[in-house]
């Protein structure tokens, strides 16, 4: 039996009468489902084969199998355009499906692609048969694929995303002689998807602002695992008060109602310069293991989470709290445990005397007065990053309301040694410090600092962590919010909503400029207002602005209440909330 080896770039070598090696190439298989085979007209079938031959000749593919209702092609690298065989196969499959969908009546067709081995078996009379894993895998995918969809194997997918992406000009040049493709490019969606595809990762305060600002100007895809928006600054009271929790959440379907975009409930696992791998939240027989999202621009608004706890901020890893119902159940379970601790005379130990620890201690003192609360921190004062008069006010309030302050001493991190050091047998230990950034998926871009934050310039473009610090992806990837470290600011920016929204204004302006080929970019001010509202239960609060205590008591309480009410009104698309926050400057 004679074999002809197919070399790895997809081109056949000279004949060899003894080689049994298997070369690596990419195959595309297509087939008509049984229902289509029974109903398709002869003229449609003839037109389909003419189109396939046209596409095949255009990209230099080789027909390796064909029948009236099925076939297979070997795709080759387009060397002069620097497009891989896998990319050629993907574009070819998309075009074939598009052509079939455009017919009247539409032709149902399935397409599969796989990269693997391929050998040629020569038979007497010059007939050739093709065998190998590339053909087998592509044929199996075509058999199982959804109708009029191009399905590709994981190997093809990884080959595509791990090689340089073809430019729009290269794709146009590749298909320049195909009237159908030119028509698709000129008529809307197909062209749009190659020029202004915007990926937004995360739908917190900053991410949702980007979506609302730019949905009408970009082909926008949002990746967010949760099905709800939550006002994080109020969640400590939401833990203690179920009725208040309801007011802090809104379904994303309501928050995004009227905005044309695609929302993928999933988690980005890898980010590349022009594509992202997304793992969907739901898993089932019809759900893909992953999805590739290609983009021209991306905005990372992934936020942060507390190390070892998802109570105060929900990250993408906590599947149980990705739904609103699951989130409420999780907080209800913690609330019930705290009530049980109080009934048994066991305390709650709060690790961290910063803003979260102080606010939680105060909320527990108000809503669960029978629960003993121990606040632990190695710093000597509560609110260690705040001005001294804020520390004095908070410490006095906590002591007056029975909070046991264990400050100024380094204690073990492990729970059992910690409780022994505190002289406590059993307790509910709650982590209230230690932020971790939710952007591990960007590791391959080499753009994070030593704290895991994404480095950006003041135009909010993501920067390489290399010494020269150039913008990655030609400046087309932006980041904002908790997960960033902005280079060139006077002081590090706080992980709050106010600076995140200021960043969102800059990102919005710069994406619009880039879309219009305007290279002049706006920058974030070198210093922003520093605004903090620290709740001490429902009846007291500290308002701090630029390092000074500006108000306490009733006035500060009303300020925080109005911020929360109007911000949630804005998220719910209520007129008053939208009006108020449209007038707030970000300096």
TrEMBL record:
InterPro entries: FAD/NAD-bd_sf (IPR036188), FAD/NAD-binding_dom (IPR023753). Residues 197-487 form the FAD/NAD(P)-binding domain. One of its GO terms (molecular function) is electron-transferring-flavoprotein dehydrogenase activity. Pfam families: Pyr_redox_2 (PF07992). Keywords: FAD, Flavoprotein, Oxidoreductase. GO terms for cellular component: cytoplasm. The keyword Cell inner membrane does not apply. PANTHER family: APOPTOSIS-INDUCING FACTOR 1, FERROPTOSIS SUPPRESSOR PROTEIN 1. Belongs to the FAD-dependent oxidoreductase family. This is FAD/NAD(P)-binding domain-containing protein. It comes from Symbiodinium natans.
